[in-house]
């Protein structure tokens, strides 16, 4: 495949950048031309994810298919949340322009233009590149019609036993209302002819999501495969070719696949929600019924069926996407289950940094010095062990923790339940509003309540996104507090896939402020005197801008200045303006932004001292780190907050200082390594597009080097990994 030119893929993203006089002491830093549109910047990010699949040699073959899945899943969520919100603005007649100058209608037009090109690129990558190569490696996707009569019969027998009983055909005519279709549902629109009176009928069959989309034919009786080739069939293909069983005595005229995406954002009037748990449960159920924001159809669908769907789903042409091939490709992640190690990433076993201390007492290990782990290169197991050890330790009196996304089989929640059963004081803030994790969190909240833990559901109007654990222990007739502070969720599964930092400390100053924050979360405390922690929505933006401006003042005084920030998203206009001012003062600023970046780097006289890169690789870059040179006395903050209005104004977030100078140096070295990456990084250009950073020797892949360092530590640590 030929590489895609970003300028072709993202045409006319923003108004032309007008030249700004660098000598002007007060340029208008609010000018729309100085900002990248938030939604289009996100599409840039997802384009980078897609590029991981499109370029051969970057990843093993099945991993490339995985990136197709991730790209597709990301895009679905983007429509369910972001596009749905903009559609609501258009429906309400809102004309307010974004900071970059777009109206809601203009954003939808730009989004559609970009997404159509991305879908075309995805199709070419999957069908012209990945699938042929999979077939060469003994993994094939077959069509029912291409199989021998014997194999078709075996599959039809399987259909009768395993699929047919689950299907529910729904008619649509004067006696049957248009059937409801749930969010993300894949459907078959079927034109039928009544053989008795030759009248045309219309019906819909939903492809059941309780069954696997990819049928592994090798496991089906009668398929007679010797095992040398792994064959897959899309379940909708099998259903389509056996519709005669659903509609006996009817002639199947045509059958067309379509898929819908609905608004999945949950709106909660918390002032009127006496029981937040029940309100969230109701909201999760209603997610199925939100307005349709996207309809995916085959280009071969006739106008009659297309118009029928558009009319009954209340859609405009802008909501309809013609997609060649299979609809809903997030299911390609199922290929990772294949036992084909040569086509997947080499297994990586992270290093357990706590084991090398030789101590089984996790509290004594923390008392010796603060500990910093870099996941997934450092094992997430010490985080689990910290909670489990505290749960069992008879000297531990209480455990307080925030939980945002914990997963469906959480050892951490089980440890908290054990602690409560043993009589310890356990207080857990379970954030029920964690999008798409509400159902898991409802289950865990009830389980914790059942064993006597104090469960809090968050503050009205605010999501609690902070990652905090406070353990209170009796030692030598005194109380001692231990902390775990993190940048990522308390989820061992994502701890193997996301890059994050974990910080263990017994520092009394931090413990005091974490205690005050928990009092604010669980009670009526309105404490605001945080001197060390940055806490949203209280002081994070204010302190962040103060530190940025301090670097500018230090540079003017010819003192050492430097700013390095690593985050998932940079959106907040006030902070962006502060960075522009620091750049104009001459401060060197390096930003590592995985996803959305609304700042435009490299604008003469405005941001020519700012460089922005994005790293996309085997692991999802998720950590947040904010480094300031501070005249030779560097300050480092880690934590949960991105630089977005929602994180600064509408969430409880924490950024915590790292006091140990050796740990500050270690993180700064991590950041410098990432900034030197010339294999997995992209540079954000002044017009908002991105280009891959291709360097000369030596090639630097930061994630690979972090893994290599972890493996070397394991080999030289002197203990046997369990």
In short:
This protein has 722 residues and is of the alpha/beta class. The strands form four sheets. Strands 14, 18, 19, 20, 21, 23, 24, 25, 26 and 27 form a ten-stranded mixed sheet that branches. Strands 10, 11, 12, 13, 15, 16, 17 and 22 form an eight-stranded mixed sheet that branches. Strands 2-4-3-7-8-9 form a six-stranded mixed sheet.
Description:
- The protein is of the alpha/beta class.
- It has 4 domains: 27-137 and 316-333, Polyphosphate kinase N-terminal domain (Methane Monooxygenase Hydroxylase, Chain G, domain 1), CATH 1.20.58; 145-287 and 296-301, Polyphosphate kinase middle domain (polyphosphate kinase like); 355-522, Endonuclease Chain A (Endonuclease, Chain A); 534-716, 2-Layer Sandwich (Endonuclease, Chain A), CATH 3.30.870.10.
- Helices cover 35% and strands 20% of the residues.
- The protein has 18 helices and 27 strands.
- Strands 14, 18, 19, 20, 21, 23, 24, 25, 26 and 27 form a 10-stranded mixed beta sheet that branches. Strands 10, 11, 12, 13, 15, 16, 17 and 22 form an 8-stranded mixed beta sheet that branches.
- A hairpin with a 2-residue loop joins strand 15 (468-475) and strand 16 (478-486).
- Helix 2 packs antiparallel against helix 3.
- It starts with 5 loop residues before the first helix and ends in a 6-residue tail after the last helix.
- Residues 1-23 and 268-274 have low confidence and may be disordered.
């Amino acid at each position: 495949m030929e590489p895609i030119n970003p300028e072709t893929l993202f045409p006319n993203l923003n108004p032309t950048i007008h030249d700004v006089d660098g000598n002007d002491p007060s340029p208008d830093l609010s000018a729309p031309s100085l900002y990248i549109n938030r939604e289009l910047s996100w599409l840039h990010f997802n384009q980078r994810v897609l590029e991981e699949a499109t370029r051969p040699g970057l990843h093993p073959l099945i991993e490339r298919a995985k990136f197709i899945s991730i790209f597709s899943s990301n895009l679905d969520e983007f429509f369910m949340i972001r596009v749905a919100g903009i559609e609501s603005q258009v429906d309400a007649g809102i004309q307010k322009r974004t900071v970059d100058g777009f109206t809601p209608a203009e954003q939808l037009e730009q989004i559609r233009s970009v997404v159509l090109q991305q879908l075309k690129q995805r199709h070419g990558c999957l069908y012209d590149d990945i699938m042929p190569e999979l077939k060469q490696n003994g993994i094939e996707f077959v069509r029912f019609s291409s199989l021998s009569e014997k194999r078709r019969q075996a599959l039809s027998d399987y259909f009768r036993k395993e699929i047919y009983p689950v299907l529910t055909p729904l008619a649509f005519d004067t006696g049957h209302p248009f059937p409801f279709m749930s969010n993300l549902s894949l459907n078959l629109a079927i034109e039928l002819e009544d053989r008795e009176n030759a009248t045309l009928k219309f019906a819909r069959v939903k492809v059941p999501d309780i069954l696997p989309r990819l049928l592994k034919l090798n496991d089906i009786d009668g398929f007679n495969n010797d095992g040398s080739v792994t064959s897959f069939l899309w379940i909708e293909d099998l259903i389509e070719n056996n519709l005669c069983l659903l509609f006996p005595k009817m002639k199947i005229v045509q059958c067309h696949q379509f898929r819908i995406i609905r608004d999945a954002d949950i709106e909660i009037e918390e002032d009127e929600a006496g029981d937040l748990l029940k309100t969230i449960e109701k909201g999760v159920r209603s997610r199925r019924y939100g307005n349709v924001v996207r309809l995916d159809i085959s280009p071969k669908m006739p106008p009659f069926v297309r118009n029928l769907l558009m009319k009954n789903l209340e859609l405009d042409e802008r909501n309809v996407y013609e997609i060649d091939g299979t609809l809903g490709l997030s299911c390609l992640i199922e290929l990772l289950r294949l036992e084909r190690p040569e086509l997947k990433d080499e297994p990586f076993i992270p290093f357990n940094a706590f084991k090398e201390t030789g101590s089984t007492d996790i509290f004594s290990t923390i008392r010796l010095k603060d500990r910093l782990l870099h996941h997934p290169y450092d094992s997430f197991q010490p985080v689990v062990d910290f909670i489990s050890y505290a749960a069992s330790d008879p000297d531990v009196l209480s455990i307080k923790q925030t939980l945002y996304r914990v997963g469906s089989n959480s050892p951490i929640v089980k440890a908290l339940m054990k602690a409560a059963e043993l009589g310890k004081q356990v207080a857990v803030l379970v954030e029920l509003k964690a999008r798409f994790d509400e159902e898991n969190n409802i289950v865990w909240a009830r389980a914790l309540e059942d064993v006597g833990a104090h469960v809090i559901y968050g503050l009205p109007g605010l999501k609690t996104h902070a990652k905090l654990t406070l353990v209170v222990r009796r030692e030598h007739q005194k109380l001692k507090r231990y902390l775990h502070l993190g940048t990522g969720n308390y989820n061992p599964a994502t701890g193997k896939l996301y890059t994050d930092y974990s910080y263990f400390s017994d520092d009394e100053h931090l413990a005091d402020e974490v205690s005050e924050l928990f009092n604010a979360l669980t009670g009526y405390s309105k404490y605001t005197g945080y001197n060390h922690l940055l806490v949203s929505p209280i002081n994070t933006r204010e302190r962040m801008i103060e530190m940025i401006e301090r670097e500018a003042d230090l540079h003017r005084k010819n003192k050492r200045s430097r700013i390095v920030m690593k985050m998932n998203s940079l959106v907040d206009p006030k902070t962006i303006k502060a960075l522009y001012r620091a750049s104009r003062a001459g401060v060197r600023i390096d930003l590592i932004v995985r996803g959305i970046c609304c700042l435009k780097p490299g604008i003469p006289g405005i941001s020519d001292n700012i460089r922005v890169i994005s790293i996309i690789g085997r692991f999802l870059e998720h950590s947040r780190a904010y480094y300031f040179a501070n005249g030779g006395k560097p300050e480092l903050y880690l934590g949960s907050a991105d630089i977005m209005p929602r994180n600064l104004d509408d969430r409880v977030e924490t950024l915590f200082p790292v006091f140990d100078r050796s740990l500050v140096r270690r993180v700064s070295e991590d950041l410098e390594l990432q900034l030197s990456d010339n294999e997995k990084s992209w540079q954000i250009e002044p017009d908002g597009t991105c280009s891959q950073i291709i360097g000369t020797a030596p090639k630097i892949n930061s994630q690979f080097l972090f893994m290599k360092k972890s493996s070397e530590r394991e080999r030289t640590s002197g203990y046997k990994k369990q």
